Amino acid sequence: MRLTPDAKGVFPIAPTPFHPDGRIDEASIDRMTDFYGEIGATGLTVLGIMGEAPKLDGAEAVAVASRVIRRTKLPVVIGVSAPGFAAMGSLTRAVMDAGAAAVMIAPPPSLRTDDQIVGYYAQAAEVIGPDVPFVIQDYPLTLSVVMTPGVIRRIVTDNANCVMLKHEDWPGLEKISALRAFQRDGSLRPISILCGNGGLFLDFECERGADGANTGYAFPEMLVDVVRLSAAGERERAHDVFDAHLPLLRYEQQPGLGLAVRKYVMMRRGILASDAQRKPGAGLSATARAEVDFLLERLGRHDPRARV
Amino acid sequence: MRLTPDAKGVFPIAPTPFHPDGRIDEASIDRMTDFYGEIGATGLTVLGIMGEAPKLDGAEAVAVASRVIRRTKLPVVIGVSAPGFAAMGSLTRAVMDAGAAAVMIAPPPSLRTDDQIVGYYAQAAEVIGPDVPFVIQDYPLTLSVVMTPGVIRRIVTDNANCVMLKHEDWPGLEKISALRAFQRDGSLRPISILCGNGGLFLDFECERGADGANTGYAFPEMLVDVVRLSAAGERERAHDVFDAHLPLLRYEQQPGLGLAVRKYVMMRRGILASDAQRKPGAGLSATARAEVDFLLERLGRHDPRARV
Amino acid sequence: MRLTPDAKGVFPIAPTPFHPDGRIDEASIDRMTDFYGEIGATGLTVLGIMGEAPKLDGAEAVAVASRVIRRTKLPVVIGVSAPGFAAMGSLTRAVMDAGAAAVMIAPPPSLRTDDQIVGYYAQAAEVIGPDVPFVIQDYPLTLSVVMTPGVIRRIVTDNANCVMLKHEDWPGLEKISALRAFQRDGSLRPISILCGNGGLFLDFECERGADGANTGYAFPEMLVDVVRLSAAGERERAHDVFDAHLPLLRYEQQPGLGLAVRKYVMMRRGILASDAQRKPGAGLSATARAEVDFLLERLGRHDPRARV
Amino acid sequence: MRLTPDAKGVFPIAPTPFHPDGRIDEASIDRMTDFYGEIGATGLTVLGIMGEAPKLDGAEAVAVASRVIRRTKLPVVIGVSAPGFAAMGSLTRAVMDAGAAAVMIAPPPSLRTDDQIVGYYAQAAEVIGPDVPFVIQDYPLTLSVVMTPGVIRRIVTDNANCVMLKHEDWPGLEKISALRAFQRDGSLRPISILCGNGGLFLDFECERGADGANTGYAFPEMLVDVVRLSAAGERERAHDVFDAHLPLLRYEQQPGLGLAVRKYVMMRRGILASDAQRKPGAGLSATARAEVDFLLERLGRHDPRARV
């Protein structure tokens, strides 16, 4: 099952569960994978930036990806961003053999000009091969590479195996509108747009034409709700659900600290056995944990799923 | 009236009002200045990054600052960040002569090491002179200069005229805690900490020990409420007020686009005659304006002040 | 006399002479201006990055530019790069009124995409007005903005008053070849290309099609020689002259330190009364001065002009 | 044989030889390794930035390192910089088992504050283990991490297994003087300083107290000569040798292009069978090759080793 340009819904960015001593926690991988399936996710992304991918060595990365793929019937996208094409190619071959649906590729931070970005994706597409679908990760805040709508159009047009955009530019609403306008005027073929950036603008992203979410908020049920309600035209209800979660979501979206919040909440929800990150990883102070607890308690008044 | 380390409350970051043709709108300056006084601001900051300071020439900058200073009884802080010390010195002398309470200084983006940052502030402090109080602007997202708590302590210790930190690191809650811990252990003298970053974490910043807000959200009344309620120990009420505004506040905090949102809302509130920015300035699309209108309408259900 | 696209030869980047106490040294400005005229410069650039432009306030900048313009019959280009268009416009009007031949505009470091760069120059060209010729400064090492040959072509094509490229990309030889190829294939109108970057590749830049040099090496006579010999087809002699100077030129080209070396050598040559820079400015250690003296002594064996 | 703080001489940065089709060229590895031994190198560094390390997958990296180690009696340093500690640890264990003398670690580009840099090296030192000597790579131009002399002193002091600094700051002469002054005042224990940055300042770096060179210039014989002559107090002769090579060395030191020049010259010298780089790699244009040929011909008049 390969990923296609009509993918929609919610593809959670799965964290990688670790034991406190740094070993990979396989039982939590299974439990988390099952959880995502049960709450209505339509796919999964593994080994993304929030999946602590660079902290795994090559064999571990393949093992984690394979375990998730075997466990779920959902299409699984694997992050294969790497400092060089040899490692990207090796990992891609291994995970596609294991049954992955696609790979996700972020641009290296050194890229500056439009041509450099387009050229990089052309080379990457050659390395992974024409049969492997890929997802563009557009995340300037962390990657410091800025892609205009026109550059994205060039990448999609040049590479038939580009099927999805993980959109997490910030601000990014006008970019979604621009890409959808390209499609309407016939200058861009159909492509799935799923939004990241912690979900901070998911309410409006759906209204602008996004197909859903591709991010890791610790209550992905909310993401599923917002995408569904928005698609059903229930605008006020979509915003109501979103707004109730926004105080916590905003807290989780802090750069560098967000993963610690996410894992802590997923631990409190019983999905992960531990909130451990591999080194180097910023843990939560006691005060920060108490703040998250307070936000959960307040959220629980609006959303019973948060009563953990 | 010079700024002192016991400043607290809300110092709004004032935008600079323009007519649609780019001229400075003096009537709107007066109306805005009066408005800030009426809603309980305890000070004002003019010519900050969101004040479009680099778009004014030297004479205009002095004129805008002087007009605000004459109009209000509140202490006024003037942003004097400049690519060189000659311009910083000239502007400082002019605005202090006009009655400013202090100046605010951001580090130039080229600074990297701890010693470079500390050295820059030592030179800047010499340029403005020992009688002029100054505010450190700590805003890594935009300025790409990262100051540890230890570096801030060195700057405060080295320069007796450093009286305030405009804190807008992100994430930044632990930094407030660290600085307040320095004060408790006697290694840092008292300093005012007012928080920026659009107010996105003001609810918890107050709880961590901040003295208030120094940001420009278009409903500064909410900032005043949160600071007051938090100081009074009314934690739940402070969060209730904050959470009601968070969907709009989050929309306004988009980098590059935020000022357009802020000016648009202030225009709809009747504070500014126009939401014009000087070139280059990102305007709002029709869709974005409709989104802001929608957020205002939803906010108005919780906060009657938003029924504009 | 306005600058035109057929400018060639050597336009030295003039430093701004200061007294040790930071005041502008007008006698040295005059002596330096005369010197440049005598050694065969074909133009002058004032208030460039190496002219310590940001350390001057607005009135000083106009005064320095005007003094040079009055003193020389050569065309004078004035650097007007500024954090905002208001200051750029004011300075441009003042120096053009004073008789400048053109202005030079560097892109602000925040620009990333091709469209952002092209858009910036369109706005700047509008601010200075269609009658003012301008020079693009393409200097990625310091400005962190990367312009492809295609982007430069778009800027030149969009703005009839763009007459020169100050080329200091690194590496940059292929860029000169690419731009000249654009001209041969008819896709780019004629434009002057003068090279900066301390002159480190001037020997080959001339052979690739550059029209000359636009940099500040303390022995601009060498730049004049290399441009002249290269234009005359005296390849080996051009390289001989260049190579003799390369050890010192390389020493002068150190980022952050180069201006101190340049001013020190110009002081030893009797052109400047002092090698002082305004704060903040990196001075030379005693060891560094001795190293420069040693290089001068060695250079003097090949080039009698270096026997100072 | 583990690397110790009294290492001196020339440790060439070895390129990784490839066949034109991208396969590793093992015969050239052997020939190159022998060559370095014959011309007086005192050690070797493999898998550095100029060794195209990120283009190798994990198994290839170990294979290349092991082949060099087996082939030579010189101490071999292996670059193990990686985006995460898991890969760094795996590669370190493998190459130390294979007989490496030490590993070299560059800081990731995201580090900003002094404490972040010091903390990173503490974690890296823990990952590789106390028995593995390591080399700090200090290369701000490419890595955008700026280390003060004080930060280097903290890293050396905190980690007993730090034995060498690969110094390639630019400008960097004062940094060598500062570190040696720390040793004289007793605040820093002995450490080897070998200089990189293409050798562009090796003439003075030796005089400032460096122990030698750690760079990849295609005529490492010159590096050996300069280090030897400088150590012997033959200052003028050291500079004569250096100056003769400077036009070519400067050409080879172009960022992004330098490796292509280096491999081309090593191919012309018969050391490498091909100048191929793995993708993505900037090749030389015909014009650039002709320029290198011209420089070689001119160099051959002074140094018979360049008559290739």
UniProtKB/TrEMBL annotation, chains A, B, C, D:
GO terms for molecular function: 4-hydroxy-tetrahydrodipicolinate synthase activity. It comes from the Bacteria. Belongs to the DapA family. This is L-2-keto-3-deoxyarabonate dehydratase. It comes from Methylobacterium frigidaeris. Keywords: Lyase. The keyword Nucleotide-binding does not apply. It holds the Pfam family DHDPS. GO terms for cellular component: cytosol. CDD domains: DHDPS-like.
